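Teaching soon. Got one?

===
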Amino acid sequence: MSGRKSKSTRVTIVDVARKSGFSPSTVSIVMSEAPLSRYVAAQTKERIRKTAQLMGYRPDVFARSLRSRRSNTVGVLVFDISDPFCVLILRGIEKALQPTPYLPILMDAHNERKLFERYLDLLLERRVEGLIVVANWLFDEGGLLANLKEKKMPMVVVGGDLSEKQIGSVIVDNEAGGYAAMKHIYELGHRQIAVIRGPEKLIDSNRRWKGIQCFAAEHGLKLDPRRVRQLPDAIDPISGFEGGRLLTDELIRSRMKFSALIAFDDLTALGALRSLAQAGRSAPRDCSIIGFDDVPLAALSTPGITTIRQPMEEMGSAATQRILDALGDPEDRREVPPDLQLLLPTLVLRNSTAHKEN
């Protein structure tokens, strides 16, 4: 019977030690890059690593985590992964973690508070070293997260502002985005402008509306309240499409003239586009439409939706970097500054907006 190990047998530190001619402790120090490895000769390190590579040795991450009491994992808890807003944020998180030893553990709470609580407990039981929460407009679990601060858990929320609860947050500058949307429509020559605001309880909606009003005030433009509508509070983050359609129907039936419409987000803009089409109108010929977010569907519609782009991938990367900075703190304080990090939005021009024809 052959003495060679079968392919299914795991190669161990002892196996590498026998093959390389060094003690298991020396091999362990080199392969784990322990502080003592700086005292090991360069030629010895090279021989051990080359032997380990040829033998197909892979370190036992689980055993190493038990010894070091570190899991090398970061929990990523998403309130609703079906929300188009989430996809690029998750990509940013994943890219930022790629060159590090940390592995993301992804959980989707499906907009359910009880499930959010359960997954939060599971992540803590598995001793994740940091936590990134991807919020949406239904997210209101700041109290649960505030309690985690006592456990010294590095934590960041993306897409929601929990800085008042002393939790580090990363969001787009919504006020600047509303200002930019209004500026674009105004510079195209539109003055009869309709606005569909987000749900009343949503902070993002109020900030975007504030930006719109700020630009209007600076340019002496009065926004007629009869052209302003507001999405209802909803339990589904993609309900903006139906809300945009119904509220645009209302605007059309009101017989109030409007040559442009600023939608709360891209799904609302897509709903408005559907309403115009059902009324025998089109964008931008009869009405210019601008959205917010730049979700993938905005580029795929006909016409493509002009929008205010949230730097979603950058937001995910920024949140992850804040976690990594906390985990790499030389004083081991493992704290994320509880401030609000604002990222600037950008205007993305497509075919749903055009100059007003006289």
The longest strand covers residues 73-78. The chain has 13 helices and twelve strands. The mean pLDDT is 88. The first helix runs from residue 13 to 20.
